[in-house]
Write a structure and sequence with these properties.
four-stranded antiparallel β-sheet, single chain, 409 residues, alpha+beta, globular, Acyl-CoA_Oxase/DH_mid-dom_sf, Butyryl-Coa Dehydrogenase, subunit A, domain 1, acyl-CoA dehydrogenase activity, 7 strands, Butyryl-CoA Dehydrogenase, subunit A, domain 3, Butyryl-CoA Dehydrogenase, subunit A, domain 2, three-stranded antiparallel β-sheet, Acyl-CoA_dehydrogenase, flavin adenine dinucleotide binding, oxidoreductase, 3 domains
């Protein structure tokens, strides 16, 4: 069992962080995020160039209460809708998509607390309300199929021990709790929430990806780390494609891509209007009047706006599925979210590429750092392959075959 009768909440964490603010309404959430994102945008280029981690910016989000917006109402939280969560990630990612991606795992794994005992749920939701965040350390840089782990996990008195090296640890460098996935003796998935301050935990900022440079998506090392039973949850109850973790995960990734696309589209417009000169064959005095430029700008904008509408529709479907509780509503929400994810990814890739084709060689100068949009889009859209989303959509609409319970649609 993940939890024994003798298990008890861990001792109160010693912390110097300022207690988090309680956001009372979803409108207040969006106003707060808009205000913070405006400040984050000012340093986005410098952080990208220097690979400087946004510790201050993430701390500000925590203090503002943004990490706590989906804590259920029965545990003192706002219980924010999927629509609001998507908008939060779009706004943050438009300003700086690395900052947008860092909380992604936090919001995906927070619903797992609801699958524990009442004592577990109360304690961990309370920690999030106080300002704690959740990171990630469940992936590994190996050639094994996803979901196969090389870590050494052992049952011991009062809990478990783990040793191993994890990668793609987005959020771990900023978090108080670092989850990973393991299996019990019945091969059921469990989620283990490691105290980031526990003995044997090391976080290495060795992420060298060309994009999303400041997500700290590098290595987490566990060296015989003890995890008490109280920190272990039955992830097998929460992890299939019809549960909140999976539905929300895909939606958030789509929102990150849309934020990248929107900022790239805005930068494209500004550069065309303020920086470019007309080509020799252009019959008009301004580059922005060239018919080919006008048409191409219309095409990229159409892709971005279409993606935005699909994202909103998917978020509404997820909110409906959560309220409905049925398998069919969850299935339709998953299909809608796959549509949104594909559209948002393609919009980000297209506009960030066309940004240069529609402006010219001068736009590639380092002083503008416009290539960050393409680097970020190309890197983030690789999170899980779009080709499989298209396969699952085709197989469902053509052959009536639903995606499997662990498929990432």
């Amino acid at each position: 069992m993940p939890l024994t009768e003798s298990s008890a909440p861990p001792a109160a964490r010693t912390t110097t962080q300022t207690p988090a603010r309680r956001l009372e309404t979803e409108a207040e959430v969006l106003q707060t995020v808009e205000r913070l994102a405006a400040g984050f945008r000012n340093g986005a280029i410098e952080r990208d160039r220097d690979r400087r981690l946004p510790h201050g910016e993430i701390a500000a989000l925590k203090r503002a209460g943004v990490f706590a917006i989906t804590v259920p109402r029965q545990h003192g939280g706002l219980g924010a809708s999927a629509a609001t969560v998507a908008e939060v990630f779009r706004i943050l990612s438009k300003a700086d998509p690395s900052i947008g991606q860092i909380p992604q795992n936090h919001f995906c794994f927070l619903p797992v607390f609801s699958f524990g005992t009442p004592e577990q749920a109360a304690f961990f939701h309370g920690r999030v309300l106080a300002g704690d965040s959740i990171g990630n350390a469940h992936n590994e840089s190996t050639r094994h199929r996803a979901g196969t782990y090389e870590h050494q996990l052992a049952r011991v008195d009062g809990g478990w021990t783990v040793s191993g090296r994890k990668f793609y640890s987005t959020g771990a460098a900023f978090a108080e709790w670092i989850p990973f996935i393991g299996y019990d003796d019945q091969q059921r998935q469990l989620m283990f929430f490691v105290d980031a301050k526990a003995k044997g935990v090391s976080i290495v900022n060795d992420w060298s990806g060309m994009g999303q440079r400041t997500t700290a998506s590098g290595s987490t090392l566990f060296d015989n780390v003890f995890i008490p039973d109280f920190n272990v949850f039955p992830y097998h109850l929460a992890g299939d494609s019809k549960r909140p973790t999976r539905l929300l995960a895909a939606l958030i990734h789509a929102a990150i891509d849309l934020g990248i696309a929107e900022e790239a589209q805005d930068d494209l417009r500004r550069y065309i209007l303020d920086q470019t000169r007309p080509w020799i064959d252009n019959p008009h005095p301004r580059h922005a009047q060239e018919p080919f430029i006008v048409q191409a700008y219309g095409e990229t904008g159409h892709g971005v706006r279409t993606a935005a509408r699909l994202l909103k529709a998917a978020a509404a479907d997820i909110d409906h599925a959560w309220a409905d509780g049925g398998k069919e509503a969850a299935l339709q929400a998953g299909l809608a979210t796959a549509d949104a994810r594909i559209a948002c990814a393609n919009a980000a890739l297209k506009v960030s590429d066309q940004l240069f084709a529609l402006t010219g060689a001068r736009a590639t100068l380092a002083q503008y750092d416009l290539d960050r949009h393409w680097r970020n889009a190309r890197t983030h859209t690789l999170h899980d392959p779009l080709r499989w989303k298209l396969f699952h959509l085709g197989n469902y609409y053509l052959n009536g075959i639903e995606p499997g319970p662990r498929s990432l649609i």
